[in-house]
Amino acid sequence: MGALSLAFAGMLMLAVLLSSLANRTILSTAALFLVAGFLLGDGALGVVSLQPGDDLVATLAELALFAVLFTDGMRVGWKDLRGAWRLPGRALGWGLPLTLAITALAAHYLLGLGWVESLLIGAILAPTDPVFAAALVGNEKVPPRLRQLLNVESGVNDGLALPFVMVFLAVAAGSHDLHLGELGLELGLGIVIGVAIPWLAIKLEQTRWFSASTQYEPLNGLAIGLLVLAVGKVTHGNLFLAAFAAGVTVATFGERQRESFEHFGELIAELLKLGALLVFGALITPALLGSVGWQGWVFAILALVLARPVAIWVSYLGSGLSVREQAAVAWFGPKGFASVVYGLIVLSSGIAAAESVFQFVAVTIVLSIVLHSSTDIVVARGFDDERDVPTWFGIARRLRGRAKEDAPS
């Protein structure tokens, strides 16, 4: 524990010092923590020794995903969804299940896994995360509808994929152990907790008897999140659906609470994300990367360059998006942080295929982080105005245009 704390503190300091550079180049803090975990783990230097069954792994994964889903939900209140649903709706309604299905087909026929395990892998790898494509989402020269599409989609699809992950994981644990009634109750209870607690807290603060001071306002969202987490634990409601529902509820009914907590909440979620990435990297060893064989690496490539692109192409037929915009959406479907945590959850679940599922998920996520976090700057620059591209390129473009105008018809 001491070595892990020291490693995290040192890497966090390094990430802070390099954060400005990372915003301008292909350097990625997510990739930095992943690589650091790999180098410090048992597979390399052995400084940080972790096992899949360690309580720290499960607890950190749980807290990190809870925080991420809570802050994701805050970014997509019902008002935002109603105002920007047309394009994100295609990605969520068609793109997500198609990505899941194509990934599952590849896992079944290429890796030889059973259908349940293949569908579980598809559900784990279906969510996207623009954290690994920050330059594209944050570049104001990228069309607003494209940035909004990626933001809304990534904010919602973690929560939408979760029930599929839970159902397929329960089935993989053994059909005799699967009780759909209990699972439905757990998921439903999570949603009720996630809606009821924030709504009640916001309504209480709006009465004349209660009011948060300026100093304590940022803690309001934290208090709501902690209460949802604690009640979910006690009642055995699904924590992750509760987190996402709570975020959406705060965004819908408490705009002031949302604004005061937004920056603070994102910092908390970022810390937990980086911690989980460090742990995730420490669990990846050279033996694991080699054990997947060539089929595993081919699967990882297909999951990135085939599953998401084909699903997006089908989803956006007749949508009005340009070819460049569709290509950007198709490529920047990185296997995000939710996939990391879902993989950790499966690894510690105890199902028979846990290690195999984790191995194939891990190599896909590693490849995604490397490829997507190192190409976001390049693709984002493709949307720059002509005045921002190199002078020679602008001149060449104008000369070509004039040549076409002067050419005889």
UniProtKB/TrEMBL annotation:
It is found in: Cell membrane. GO terms for cellular component: plasma membrane. The keyword Phosphoprotein does not apply. Residues 14-375 form the Cation/H+ exchanger transmembrane domain. Keywords: Antiport, Cell membrane, Ion transport, Membrane, Transmembrane, Transmembrane helix, Transport. One of its GO terms (molecular function) is antiporter activity. It holds the Pfam family Na_H_Exchanger. It is a multi-pass membrane protein. Its main location: membrane. The keyword Membrane applies. InterPro entries: Cation/H_exchanger_TM (IPR006153), Na+/solute_symporter_sf (IPR038770). The chain crosses the membrane at residues 32-50, 57-74, 94-112, 159-176, 183-202, 222-250, 271-290, 296-317, 329-351, 357-379. One of its GO terms (biological process) is proton transmembrane transport. This is Sodium:proton antiporter.
